[in-house]
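Re: Re: token formats

Sure, here are both.
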Amino acid sequence: MAENRASAYGEGVPCWVDAQLPDVAAGKRFYGDLFGWTFGEPGDREAPGAGVWARLGGEPVASLAPKRDGRMPTVWTVYFATPDAEALADRVWAAGGQVVTAPLPVADLGVTALVTDPEGAVFGLWQPGRHPGFGRRHEPGTFAWAELYARDTEAADDFYGGLFHDALFGPGAEPDFGRAAVGEVFAAEMPPHFVVHFRVEDCAAAVRSAVRLGGRVQVPPFETSYGKVAVVIDNQGASFAVLQR
């Protein structure tokens, strides 16, 4: 095991990611080749959102889930840990966000919910049961960062700073997410949203691999305060970033 998961994910720490895809089998081929993930081990279909767990070195790192409604976006979602999903969903609502999917148990694995911030950026909540979250992170082929692209960065600071104060500013805090203005990277008309980042050893090489596998480049490699990043779109339309640091 890469780390002590139970102690790693305090409230407001990104603890899981999943992709809602039209074709999970195609997603397994794409991400298995790109990141070296394996699939299909016992228990995989118990991941949050009833998806299939992706593993690296035998540890869970993400899940791929079938889209239940073709009208829903094909997207990667980041989940933030909480000891009480219902209470946190109430705080999201009180702070001006919306509750998209009310807290719902996922077998004995935990409780999940989908919410938005006041500008409409979607993110998940995860109250752990048997599944605390990532078995590996911060290494090649695993989650490394989540960046919020917002229109009103001051409002985003107020919302997330109030919601996840300890994870962002508490003693010893090492945040795994940040924020930027939409227009710094994307077209100004792009809706506010989170971009899930996966760590890679070579950003340019990862982009070439993604294109070879049927993906396309959304934003070519660029430098950030947290590393070299490129935003790509997989072979089904889900956007994510690769991060070299």
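Second one below.
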Amino acid sequence: MTDGRREELAASLAAMEDRIAAACAAAGRARDEVRLLGVTKTFPASDAALLVDLGLENLAENRDQEAGPKAEEVPGARWHMVGSLQRNKARSVVRWAAEVQSVDSARLADALGRATGSAREAGERADPLDVLIQVSLDGDPARGGTPISEVAALADHITHVGELRLRGVMAVAPREEEPGRAFALLAQVSEQLREDHPNAAEVSAGMSHDLEQAITHGSTCVRVGTALLGGRGLASP
């Protein structure tokens, strides 16, 4: 079964690379401007390990309770947190995540900063935590993300929190909106952010169904689950 699954994932990964390369070419961008982030939520650690063996370094989870054990089993990956995160999970998340893409409040940034400092002091991690601001493109707080009008203030706050490195912005296109329009708006937010924070150049946008539109509008990181791994399976134990 492992050999068959490896072949499935290798084919999916090759097809995804072709899609990204084609989208970059159409947008007049170099292929190496866009990272592929494999979202392994609900899939077993064995799939994550196969993806790493196939050359995919960056993997992501959206639930801490699933990610922690999986990251221990697959230490060769660079793990990212992409889901909504509560402050009381900060201490756990910083033990496995190299980057948190879903920071949407100053209080969460503070919690992550404290937790990262404690983890470094305890020898549980070596580096500061990279973070992205999750931007709400439709202003609906139920979907997570900080309103566009508050991004600048949150960015300034993050840069004054010890142990955090602001890398850019992340967003999900609202389901009822045309993705290209949403990603164009995120590109404007990113451009404004870089005026004061030039190192915050990452734009995490685009998933299995809309990554081409995201790349057209400057995404530097696409988050892909279904197109790589297939329909959602059972969570790893």
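The CA atoms of residues 62 and 83 lie 4 Å apart. The first helix runs from residue 2 to 26.
- S.
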